[in-house]
Amino acid sequence: MLVDSHCHLNFPELAGRVDDALALMRENGVTHALCVSVTLAEFPQVRALAERFPQIYGSVGVHPDYEDVPPVLEDELVAGANHPKIVAIGETGLDYFRIKGDCEWQRERFRTHIRAARRCGKPLIIHMREAGADTLRIMAEERAPEAGGVMHCFTGTWEEAQAAIELGFHISFSGIVTFRNAGALREVARNVPLERMLIETDSPYLAPVPHRGKTNEPGLVKYVAEEIARVRGLSLEQVAEKTSDNFFRLFKIRNADAHG
Asked: What pLDDT, in 10s, does the model give residues 73-117?
Protein backbone atom coordinates (compact mmCIF):
# COMPACT_ATOMS: atom_id res chain seq x y z
CA MET A 1 0.00 0.00 0.00
CA LEU A 2 1.28 3.43 -1.02
CA VAL A 3 -0.09 6.90 -0.25
CA ASP A 4 0.49 10.16 -2.13
CA SER A 5 0.67 12.74 0.66
CA HIS A 6 0.50 15.80 -1.62
CA CYS A 7 -1.16 16.29 -5.00
CA HIS A 8 -3.36 18.79 -6.84
CA LEU A 9 -6.07 16.75 -8.51
CA ASN A 10 -8.18 19.87 -8.98
CA PHE A 11 -5.59 21.57 -11.21
CA PRO A 12 -6.52 21.81 -14.91
CA GLU A 13 -3.99 19.16 -15.98
CA LEU A 14 -5.78 16.53 -13.86
CA ALA A 15 -9.29 17.82 -13.13
CA GLY A 16 -10.72 16.50 -16.39
CA ARG A 17 -9.31 13.00 -15.94
CA VAL A 18 -9.67 12.22 -12.27
CA ASP A 19 -11.16 8.79 -12.99
CA ASP A 20 -8.10 7.89 -15.08
CA ALA A 21 -5.80 9.13 -12.29
CA LEU A 22 -7.65 6.98 -9.75
CA ALA A 23 -7.35 3.99 -12.06
CA LEU A 24 -3.56 4.40 -12.24
CA MET A 25 -3.47 4.70 -8.47
CA ARG A 26 -5.20 1.34 -8.17
CA GLU A 27 -2.91 -0.20 -10.77
CA ASN A 28 0.19 0.94 -8.88
CA GLY A 29 -1.03 0.11 -5.39
CA VAL A 30 -1.62 3.73 -4.33
CA THR A 31 -4.62 3.54 -2.04
CA HIS A 32 -5.05 7.17 -0.91
CA ALA A 33 -4.04 10.71 -1.83
CA LEU A 34 -4.19 14.12 -0.18
CA CYS A 35 -5.40 16.89 -2.52
CA VAL A 36 -3.88 20.14 -1.30
CA SER A 37 -5.48 23.58 -1.46
CA VAL A 38 -3.53 26.57 -2.82
CA THR A 39 -6.22 29.30 -2.68
CA LEU A 40 -9.45 29.73 -0.79
CA ALA A 41 -11.25 30.39 -4.08
CA GLU A 42 -10.31 26.90 -5.28
CA PHE A 43 -10.85 25.20 -1.93
CA PRO A 44 -14.45 24.15 -2.78
CA GLN A 45 -13.00 22.07 -5.65
CA VAL A 46 -10.66 20.32 -3.23
CA ARG A 47 -13.45 19.69 -0.74
CA ALA A 48 -15.74 18.34 -3.49
CA LEU A 49 -13.11 15.81 -4.58
CA ALA A 50 -12.62 14.68 -0.99
CA GLU A 51 -16.38 14.32 -0.52
CA ARG A 52 -16.84 12.42 -3.80
CA PHE A 53 -14.02 9.89 -3.48
CA PRO A 54 -13.37 7.89 -0.29
CA GLN A 55 -9.67 7.53 -1.11
CA ILE A 56 -9.13 11.30 -1.43
CA TYR A 57 -8.58 13.70 1.46
CA GLY A 58 -8.14 17.47 1.34
CA SER A 59 -6.54 20.50 3.00
CA VAL A 60 -7.42 24.18 3.27
CA GLY A 61 -4.89 26.97 2.79
CA VAL A 62 -3.24 29.56 0.57
CA HIS A 63 0.12 28.92 -1.10
CA PRO A 64 2.86 31.49 -0.38
CA ASP A 65 3.29 32.23 -4.10
CA TYR A 66 -0.20 33.77 -4.39
CA GLU A 67 0.39 37.42 -3.57
CA ASP A 68 -2.63 38.88 -5.34
CA VAL A 69 -5.36 37.23 -3.29
CA PRO A 70 -7.33 38.70 -0.38
CA PRO A 71 -5.76 38.55 3.08
CA VAL A 72 -6.23 35.16 4.71
CA LEU A 73 -8.24 35.16 7.93
CA GLU A 74 -7.62 32.65 10.68
CA ASP A 75 -11.36 32.12 11.12
CA GLU A 76 -11.73 31.22 7.42
CA LEU A 77 -9.10 28.52 7.68
CA VAL A 78 -10.57 27.09 10.86
CA ALA A 79 -14.04 27.02 9.28
CA GLY A 80 -12.72 25.27 6.18
CA ALA A 81 -10.98 22.66 8.30
CA ASN A 82 -14.23 21.83 10.12
CA HIS A 83 -14.93 18.87 7.84
CA PRO A 84 -14.11 15.18 8.36
CA LYS A 85 -12.30 14.85 5.00
CA ILE A 86 -10.26 18.08 5.38
CA VAL A 87 -7.30 16.83 7.36
CA ALA A 88 -4.69 19.63 7.19
CA ILE A 89 -3.98 23.35 7.02
CA GLY A 90 -1.98 24.45 3.97
CA GLU A 91 -0.19 24.53 1.85
CA THR A 92 1.48 27.43 3.54
CA GLY A 93 5.02 28.61 4.23
CA LEU A 94 7.63 30.85 2.63
CA ASP A 95 9.06 31.04 -0.88
CA TYR A 96 11.89 33.49 -1.50
CA PHE A 97 12.73 31.90 -4.86
CA ARG A 98 9.64 33.06 -6.75
CA ILE A 99 8.69 36.03 -4.57
CA LYS A 100 11.18 38.87 -4.30
CA GLY A 101 11.24 42.16 -2.40
CA ASP A 102 9.41 42.79 0.87
CA CYS A 103 7.93 39.43 1.91
CA GLU A 104 6.51 40.49 5.26
CA TRP A 105 2.99 39.81 3.95
CA GLN A 106 4.11 36.24 3.23
CA ARG A 107 5.46 35.79 6.73
CA GLU A 108 2.24 37.15 8.27
CA ARG A 109 0.15 34.79 6.15
CA PHE A 110 2.31 31.90 7.32
CA ARG A 111 1.77 32.91 10.95
CA THR A 112 -1.99 33.00 10.35
CA HIS A 113 -1.95 29.44 9.03
CA ILE A 114 0.05 28.19 12.01
CA ARG A 115 -2.36 29.83 14.44
CA ALA A 116 -5.32 28.29 12.63
CA ALA A 117 -3.71 24.85 12.71
CA ARG A 118 -3.15 25.12 16.45
CA ARG A 119 -6.77 26.20 16.97
CA CYS A 120 -8.34 23.39 14.97
CA GLY A 121 -5.83 20.69 15.91
CA LYS A 122 -4.93 19.76 12.36
CA PRO A 123 -1.37 19.49 11.01
CA LEU A 124 0.39 21.93 8.70
CA ILE A 125 1.59 21.35 5.15
CA ILE A 126 4.61 23.64 4.79
CA HIS A 127 6.24 24.86 1.58
CA MET A 128 9.82 26.07 2.10
CA ARG A 129 11.95 27.30 -0.78
CA GLU A 130 15.14 29.32 -0.26
CA ALA A 131 13.65 30.49 3.05
CA GLY A 132 14.86 27.91 5.52
CA ALA A 133 15.98 30.21 8.33
CA ASP A 134 12.82 32.34 8.38
CA THR A 135 10.52 29.34 7.96
CA LEU A 136 12.03 27.47 10.90
CA ARG A 137 12.19 30.62 13.04
CA ILE A 138 8.50 31.38 12.52
CA MET A 139 7.56 27.76 13.14
CA ALA A 140 9.27 27.98 16.52
CA GLU A 141 7.91 31.44 17.38
CA GLU A 142 4.31 30.47 16.56
CA ARG A 143 4.53 27.11 18.35
CA ALA A 144 3.96 25.09 15.18
CA PRO A 145 5.02 21.88 16.98
CA GLU A 146 1.67 22.02 18.80
CA ALA A 147 0.00 21.31 15.44
CA GLY A 148 2.71 19.21 13.82
CA GLY A 149 2.87 18.65 10.10
CA VAL A 150 5.10 18.04 7.13
CA MET A 151 7.75 19.89 5.15
CA HIS A 152 6.37 19.05 1.74
CA CYS A 153 8.44 18.48 -1.43
CA PHE A 154 11.57 18.93 0.65
CA THR A 155 14.64 20.20 -1.19
CA GLY A 156 16.56 21.75 1.69
CA THR A 157 19.74 20.75 3.48
CA TRP A 158 20.21 17.98 5.99
CA GLU A 159 20.63 20.64 8.68
CA GLU A 160 17.23 22.13 7.77
CA ALA A 161 15.67 18.67 7.77
CA GLN A 162 17.12 17.99 11.23
CA ALA A 163 15.77 21.29 12.54
CA ALA A 164 12.29 20.52 11.22
CA ILE A 165 12.40 17.02 12.68
CA GLU A 166 13.41 18.48 16.05
CA LEU A 167 10.27 20.62 15.85
CA GLY A 168 8.25 17.44 15.43
CA PHE A 169 7.70 17.67 11.68
CA HIS A 170 7.83 15.05 8.96
CA ILE A 171 9.91 15.35 5.77
CA SER A 172 8.23 14.53 2.46
CA PHE A 173 10.08 13.62 -0.72
CA SER A 174 8.76 14.09 -4.25
CA GLY A 175 9.87 12.97 -7.69
CA ILE A 176 12.81 15.36 -7.41
CA VAL A 177 14.62 12.64 -5.44
CA THR A 178 14.75 10.58 -8.66
CA PHE A 179 16.38 13.33 -10.74
CA ARG A 180 19.96 12.73 -11.87
CA ASN A 181 21.29 15.95 -10.31
CA ALA A 182 19.60 15.37 -6.92
CA GLY A 183 22.48 13.60 -5.18
CA ALA A 184 22.41 15.90 -2.15
CA LEU A 185 18.68 15.34 -1.71
CA ARG A 186 19.12 11.57 -1.96
CA GLU A 187 21.64 11.85 0.87
CA VAL A 188 19.01 13.63 2.97
CA ALA A 189 16.51 10.86 2.10
CA ARG A 190 19.08 8.31 3.22
CA ASN A 191 19.35 9.95 6.65
CA VAL A 192 15.83 11.07 7.58
CA PRO A 193 14.39 8.64 10.13
CA LEU A 194 11.89 6.42 8.37
CA GLU A 195 9.28 7.14 11.04
CA ARG A 196 9.39 10.83 10.02
CA MET A 197 9.18 10.32 6.25
CA LEU A 198 6.36 10.84 3.77
CA ILE A 199 6.30 10.53 -0.01
CA GLU A 200 4.38 12.60 -2.54
CA THR A 201 4.03 13.57 -6.18
CA ASP A 202 3.11 17.30 -5.99
CA SER A 203 1.28 16.37 -9.20
CA PRO A 204 0.69 17.56 -11.85
CA TYR A 205 4.29 18.76 -11.44
CA LEU A 206 7.67 17.09 -10.92
CA ALA A 207 6.99 13.73 -12.55
CA PRO A 208 9.61 11.23 -11.39
CA VAL A 209 12.07 9.42 -13.63
CA PRO A 210 11.20 7.62 -15.95
CA HIS A 211 8.25 9.99 -16.58
CA ARG A 212 10.13 13.26 -16.13
CA GLY A 213 8.76 16.06 -18.31
CA LYS A 214 5.28 14.53 -18.48
CA THR A 215 2.19 15.33 -16.45
CA ASN A 216 2.58 13.85 -13.00
CA GLU A 217 -0.23 12.08 -11.13
CA PRO A 218 -0.68 10.33 -7.79
CA GLY A 219 -0.16 6.84 -9.18
CA LEU A 220 3.46 7.71 -9.97
CA VAL A 221 4.39 8.09 -6.31
CA LYS A 222 5.51 4.47 -6.59
CA TYR A 223 8.70 5.65 -8.31
CA VAL A 224 9.51 7.97 -5.40
CA ALA A 225 9.15 5.06 -2.99
CA GLU A 226 11.30 2.84 -5.21
CA GLU A 227 14.13 5.39 -5.27
CA ILE A 228 14.05 5.88 -1.50
CA ALA A 229 14.08 2.11 -1.04
CA ARG A 230 17.10 1.88 -3.35
CA VAL A 231 19.17 4.55 -1.59
CA ARG A 232 18.36 3.14 1.86
CA GLY A 233 18.83 -0.51 0.99
CA LEU A 234 15.24 -1.35 1.89
CA SER A 235 12.44 -3.12 0.08
CA LEU A 236 9.69 -1.17 -1.63
CA GLU A 237 7.24 -2.84 0.75
CA GLN A 238 9.12 -1.52 3.79
CA VAL A 239 9.08 2.07 2.51
CA ALA A 240 5.45 1.79 1.39
CA GLU A 241 4.26 0.42 4.72
CA LYS A 242 6.11 2.92 6.88
CA THR A 243 5.30 6.05 4.87
CA SER A 244 1.64 5.03 4.65
CA ASP A 245 1.44 4.41 8.40
CA ASN A 246 3.08 7.80 8.97
CA PHE A 247 0.50 9.47 6.73
CA PHE A 248 -2.51 8.01 8.53
CA ARG A 249 -1.06 8.80 11.94
CA LEU A 250 -0.02 12.38 11.12
CA PHE A 251 -3.32 13.33 9.54
CA LYS A 252 -5.33 11.49 12.22
CA ILE A 253 -7.09 9.22 9.75
CA ARG A 254 -8.47 6.20 11.56
CA ASN A 255 -7.48 2.82 10.21
CA ALA A 256 -11.11 1.91 9.59
CA ASP A 257 -11.58 5.09 7.53
CA ALA A 258 -8.36 4.57 5.60
CA HIS A 259 -9.32 1.06 4.57
CA GLY A 260 -12.92 1.73 3.67
From this structure: 999 999 999 999 999 999 999 999 887 778 999 999 999 999 999
Give per-residue pLDDT as tens, 216-229: 999 999 999 999 99
- 3-state per-residue secondary structure call for the chain: CEEEEEECCCCHHHHCCHHHHHHHHHHCCEEEEEECCCCCCCHHHHHHHHHHCCCEEEEECCCCCCCCCCCCCHHHHHHHHCCCCEEEEEEEEEECCCCCCCCHHHHHHHHHHHHHHHHHCCCEEEEEECCHHHHHHHHHHCCHHHCCEEECCCCCCHHHHHHHHHCCEEEEECHHHHCCCCHHHHHHHHHCCHHHEEECCCECCCCCCCCCCCCCCHHHHHHHHHHHHHHHCCCHHHHHHHHHHHHHHHCCCCHHHHCC
Residue ranges and CATH numbers for the domains of the chain are 2-253 (3.20.20.140)
Query: Average of pLDDT values for 218-244?
Result: 98
